[in-house]
C-alpha cells in the first residue's frame, strides 16, 4: 500500500514539474500610476518628560509587641531603615508547642536574607489535657435473656383465597386485513 502511495506522489510531482510557474505581468503599465506628488508627513520630536523628583532619604524605626494572656498570643517585631533601601529587623512569636521562633532579617541591594532560630522552653500553656482511665468492664443491669419466657402471640387467622369474576366487557372482534 505504501509503495502505491509513493508511486502516485511521484507521478503527481512529475506532472506538476512539466509546467513552469506563470510570470507576473502587471495589469496596467507603470506610467499609468505615477509616484504621488505629496511628501510624507513630518512629525515633531516628542516632548521630554519632566524627570521624577528626587526625594531625600526618609529613614524610619518602629517596634511593637503583644502579650495577651487570654488568647496566649505573645509576639513582637522591630524594624529599622536608613532610607536608602537598606532594612534590618526581627520578629518573634511563641508557637503552640511553647517554643519561641525568632527571625532576624535584612534587605538591601544584595536581596533579602532571613535567619530563623527556635528557642525551646519559655512559655508553657497553663492547660493540660486530663489523663483518662480505661472504662470499667460492661455489666448489664438486667438478668440474662434466658430468664425471660418467649412472648406468646395468637396464631394468624386464615384468610380465604381471593376470587375474581370474569370481565364485564366484551372484547372487540378481530379483523384480519
UniProtKB/TrEMBL annotation:
This is Cuticle protein. Residues 1-17 form the signal peptide. One of its GO terms (cellular component) is extracellular matrix. It comes from Aphis glycines. One of its GO terms (molecular function) is structural constituent of cuticle. It holds the Pfam family Chitin_bind_4. Coiled coil: none annotated. Keywords: Cuticle, Signal.
Amino acid at each position: 500500500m505504501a509503495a502505491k502511495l509513493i508511486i502516485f506522489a511521484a507521478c503527481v510531482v512529475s506532472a506538476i514539474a512539466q509546467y513552469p510557474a506563470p510570470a507576473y505581468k502587471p495589469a496596467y503599465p507603470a506610467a499609468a500610476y505615477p509616484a504621488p506628488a505629496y511628501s510624507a508627513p513630518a512629525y515633531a520630536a516628542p516632548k521630554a518628560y519632566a524627570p521624577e523628583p528626587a526625594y531625600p532619604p526618609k529613614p524610619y524605626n518602629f517596634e511593637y509587641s503583644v502579650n495577651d494572656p487570654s488568647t496566649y498570643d505573645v509576639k513582637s517585631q522591630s524594624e529599622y531603615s536608613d532610607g536608602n533601601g537598606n532594612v534590618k529587623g526581627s520578629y518573634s512569636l511563641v508557637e503552640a508547642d511553647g517554643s519561641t521562633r525568632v527571625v532576624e532579617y535584612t534587605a538591601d541591594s544584595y536581596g533579602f536574607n532571613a535567619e530563623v532560630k527556635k528557642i525551646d522552653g519559655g512559655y508553657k500553656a497553663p492547660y493540660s489535657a486530663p489523663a483518662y482511665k480505661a472504662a470499667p468492664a460492661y455489666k448489664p443491669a438486667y438478668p440474662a435473656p434466658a430468664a425471660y419466657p418467649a412472648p406468646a402471640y395468637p396464631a394468624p387467622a386464615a384468610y380465604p383465597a381471593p376470587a375474581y369474576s370474569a370481565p364485564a366487557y366484551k372484547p372487540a372482534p378481530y379483523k384480519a386485513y
